[in-house]
Fold each of these.
Amino acid sequence: METNQSENQVSISDSQAIEEALNESTNPDFQVIRDQFPILRRNINGHPLVYLDSAASSQKPLRVLERIDRYLREQHANVHRGVHSLSIEATDAYEEARNTIAVHVGAADSSEIVFTRGTTESINLVASSWGDTFVKEGDEIILTKMEHHSNIVPWQILAERTGARLNYVDVTADGRLDMNDLDRLLERRPKLVSFTHVSNGMGTLNPVIDIVERAHAVGALTLIDGAQAAPHLQINVEELGCDFYAFSAHKMCGPTGVGALWGRRDLFEIMPPYQSGGEMISEVTLEGSRWAEVPHKFEAGTPNISGVVGFGEAVQFLNDVGLDTIAVHENSLKKYALERLTAVEGLTLYGPREERTSVFSFTYGDIHPHDLSTILDQNGIAIRAGHHCNQPLMDHFGISATARASFYLYNTHNEVDALCEGLQMAAKVFGGIA
Ligand code: 7TS
């Protein structure tokens, strides 16, 4: 946790950083990128929209909207069923998206990508299918205190069902995982370590490769919640070495209601179906059924075909811009936002200074985060306020909510300034910061 109680001043090195950041903000490439997001041209409450809530859900570029539109207008039929041309075309579009996403995350084979409704369902799939099969009474699962509820509740329910025990890795005062605590919990030889790549509550970038190695050394499997990482970082599951990786399309410029679970093929092979019905079988008789091959075994029912096609297009868009290029822009925004926010008197920023992404969670004096968000919204600035589905993390810091501003490839340095001006306005409305 980082609190700034000093006067509203920046050092020489800080102002250099600000100057550098401002120079980068004039990078014309990013104006071109921003222009591809039609919603960003909107006015909200009489002000140009400043969208700082991409950690909740990102906006969508025109080509994703157009791709979904084209699919629905020209290509739609059910997949994997018909032998008619349109069904073959729809199936090709669906499977092409799987391929694009598999290549994007460095999967060995596209069959290692299962389409789900998003990160939440991906984690539920593992908790139900793998968990119910391999977790027994007395087994332990390690989570962390910085997990999103989606990576806590499915395991709590599994623990109730099976009699397994959950342990939570502690979080340090500056918002990192306590690696000594992890080691202590690993001595208990857990079955699984399931943890977030990037914290949605603080922006902490966790040392995933290190955690995976430590977990594997004691024979535990690993699941990484990649919801906040996949939109920003080049993910390579082989390099990460993990066993499962979950992510959502809607945070990475794609549509809502679709996401993916990457899993090691040998694990998928020995896991039973998650849901059952059509699509996931190879044969059904009145006496019983046989399952389809991986990944179809896990995709029961008619899938979100247009969503998957849009997801593929979104990933293609991110690839075309280049994750490296996005990282340069976001790092610049991050540096600038860090300097400006830490210079705001009375603002308490959660999470580390280094090893973080451009998600900024803070409290501002004693203004309630919801009030802050309302005042900013009156000025067209969208931030999120609340517990961000991170109640255990909030409890850890002894607070009930934070304000959270999160940045993405379409944000500008001017929008960091707008946020800081909005904070000043809020301070005035509340007659100063206590
Ligand atoms: N895991 C993390 C780390 C997340 O940030 C989120 C969503 C999820 C899982 C769940 O993803 P979903 O796509 O299945 O809903 N996070 C947020 C957030 O921070 N504000 O709104 C949603």
Amino acid sequence: MSIIFEPNNKIFTMQTKHTTWQAKVSKYGHLLHVYYGSKVEDADLSYLIRGINRGFSGTPYIACDDRGYSLDTYPQEYSSWGSGDYRSSCLEIEHEDGSRAAELLYVSHKIYDGKYILPGLPAIWGKPSEIETLEVLMKDRSTEIEVILYYSVLEEYDVITRACKICNAGNKPVFLHKALSACLDLQRDDLDMVSFHGRHAMERILQRNHAQHGKMSVGSVRGTSSHQANPFVILCDQTAGEEHGECYGMSFVYSGNFIAETEVDQINQTRFTMGIHPDGFRYLLEAKEAFVAPEVIFSYSSKGFGTLSQNFHDLYRNHLIRSTFKNKRRPVLINNWEATEFDFTEKELVSLAVSAKELGIELFVMDDGWFGSRNHDKSGLGDWFANREKLPSGVKGFAEKIHKLGMMFGIWIEPEMVNEDSELYRKHPQWCLKIPGRLPNLERCQMVLDMTRKDVRDYLFEAVSKVLDESHAEYVKWDMNRNLSDVWSADLPGERQGEVYHRYVLGVYELIERFTSKYPDILWEGCSGGGGRFDAGILYYMPQSWCSDNTDAIERITIQYGTSFGYPISCVGAHVSVSPNQQTGRETSIETRAAVAMAGTFGYELDVRKLNEEEREKVKEQIVFFKKYYDLIHEGDYYRLTEVGKRTDLAAWQFVSKDKSESLICTVMLQAKANPPFLRLRVRGLKEESLYHMEGTETFYKGSALMHAGINLPVVYGDYQNVNFVFQEVLS
Ligand code: GLA
């Protein structure tokens, strides 16, 4: 039993392997947050909640004689606007009379085996034997608004997920102005917020700020989770690092607008809230309608970021990703984008594929430019049929040629978009998001299709299915190359326009669900101009996402470092590209580029025909190496050995098999130095007492020596040099 209800004191205790979450129904019926942190067994921790009479922090009417009891200072499980809690709210409702308030009181609860279901939304899943759920029904004191708070406990993973449903059980319509998914009230003010900001071609750069009085938030109002902010954040104590310290990780399982906010209040408590961003959000709930707020995943570690990340990695690999490629090896691919961009012929692509096949590459991916009038980014999006000038025998004929080579065939699509210069737009100008009477904002000369519309989704499903059927594609890259603006749907009445952002995401999910159920054996890769929609929501449907349009190995170290805090290596789309790099002009060796791409899905994205013989031999070896250590890399524990940003001389990361018998350590020595100091590296996660053999040498090391004393790194010549180490446990 991981969820226990103690009826006398009305306490809910949720236990995972190393953590405890406790909540309590107060004597006045509010659901208070008691504790979340390291495991405490058999204890009522509600003594932690205290109240004293504080000026300007009021008291609920029914508690008027109890002036220490204030919703403004007491920790809440789900906060609401308008009834005396002046801190960040989760719920803001406008009732029919124009009033905006809610005071949620406990009504009843259910505890059951298995996971709660969020229809139409991605979420963590699992067997009833692996997950236990608590549902708490709350009701507004004065209206028929009900809120069901969901909690699911994955004991083994140190994970608790949350979501909620807001139901209008009354007879009159209401508007939701804010419907966040979760709140965490911690009675402490010593927390930093770690978030991941970025931009196109430079995503998920770690930023750490102390949460101070007032609000601090990150989020997106771009219609997607965005390059600029990621819906994964950490709250940690100010001393926390990779191997020590308390940290709380929160991941929003959603691919649209979001907010993650901390607020330190007047008495030095920190409130964290997460959910759909309230900007641009206004949701009409007619009588008897309900709104489901997407899932937030919580995990806590008292052992620093390393363990926290591993919790998320294990969880996603086993209980988020559903693809058949969860348990199947993914092929090493070549993508033609950086080699040709839009400028290719079938003949050229076949010759690229032939050359790639010789190297051991298994999958050929035809990127943008194969359809309609798509010879540049100004036209063609929406017309999902072959450009016969480039592909005289159609996608079918081209795919046959690839298959004949003994390679798998993959294809790029960008279903959510349309160019004005396209047959689709000319036929259905109402199918895109734009506001009547306004000239829409353009990005990359394209507009966003109205994914809230079923007719739009049906068209896309049919047109793209045709291509997949005739080509027998084994891989699809689903791109999305702009943000939403001018958000207005011709299909919805005025009073529902505030729902379009959310309905857009639901529409995208519905369409992807249709595709992935019809084509379960296809390997689906998400993409949004690189990593502009890199989130747990997308990963539920597609097991990997292109991490960044920046393929420079050195910049990728920073991008992939940030990404690794919340997401497993097996999700990180990463390719070896040309040197000098197309985005930065930086030169790096093929070894360094491969080492970085191997901390991901691994593939190539360059004209391999132009590699010299020595490089081609190296590529062959890299593919053999990657396949040899595939399980270790994709299934093992991942360790960040250096802190990007702090160290300018070295970047290092490590994979350790779950049984600790094998480990791969990758290093990139960033800056060459004359008369250099010696570099040494301590590794992690091995067995202290075991003996390990360093592959390719006659040297043996004790696990404790490797972890506490470290290994010597060689003195290298030239910037950005890569050195890898493999250790195998010697069984006595
Ligand atoms: C986006 C993707 C790239 C490539 C181009 C094609 O930018 O991230 O990998 O597919 O689109 O237009």
